TrEMBL record:
The chain crosses the membrane at residues 26-47, 126-143, 149-168. Residues 55-164 form the Phosphatidic acid phosphatase type 2/haloperoxidase domain. This is Undecaprenyl-diphosphatase. SUPFAM superfamilies: Acid phosphatase/Vanadium-dependent haloperoxidase (SSF48317). Keywords: Membrane, Transmembrane, Transmembrane helix. It holds the Pfam family PAP2. InterPro entries: PAP2/HPO, PAP2/HPO_sf, UPP_Pase.
Length: 184
């Protein structure tokens, strides 16, 4: 029942693809390229090295790595074919026919965006909006079902929260983050 609803929502979205070429191009841009904006932001924060910038970068990369690893574990137990494999759809970007569940792009973008929200970085809500658009774009371009990106986003949120409120405060990590390399 949940998967049927998921497919119906996917088909509802996919029926609109190619109707609005400007939106199609925008979604392709978000699905394929905007994720690198997070990489550039983290590099900029590391180089800028003001206040806690490097700690923020460490925390974001830690959350990203952990959420990506959790996705790999989930994929050991749950395999879901991508929409373009099981349905006749409009697909805007090429993708390998690996497991669709959960979405790595959603986990990655959301884990970094939630980390930025938690550490109160300037423009944090803009980064959150960018992450949401990356997540939705993966459905629009035909490589994920809505449940895939919802699961990926939930994983990203949970991992960012656990990283911020539990892991970063652990003595070993806290001591590591007090090293001179993390402070200006």
């Amino acid at each position: 029942m949940i998967l049927d609803t998921d497919v119906k929502w996917f088909m509802f979205i996919n029926e609109r693809v190619s109707t609005y070429p400007l939106i199609d191009h925008l979604m392709i841009f978000f699905a394929e390229y905007v994720q690198y904006a997070f990489v550039l932001l983290l590099i900029m924060l590391w180089w800028r090295n003001k206040k806690n910038d490097r700690v923020i970068v460490f925390q974001a990369l830690f959350a990203f790595s952990l959420s990506y690893s959790v996705n790999r574990l989930i994929e050991l137990f749950i395999y879901r074919e991508r929409p373009f494999i099981t349905h006749d759809i409009v697909q805007l970007v090429e993708h390998t026919a690996n497991s669709s569940f959960p979405s790595d792009h959603a986990s990655s973008a959301i884990s970094i965006a939630v980390t930025l929200i938690l550490v109160t970085i300037r423009f944090r809500y803009l980064w959150c909006m960018i992450a949401i658009l990356i997540t939705f774009s993966r459905i629009w371009v035909g490589v994920h079902y809505p449940l895939d990106v919802i699961a990926g986003a939930l994983n990203g949120i949970l991992i960012a929260l656990v990283t911020h409120f539990l892991l970063i405060k652990q003595k070993t990590i806290a001591d590591f983050l007090r090293r001179p390399i993390f402070h200006s």
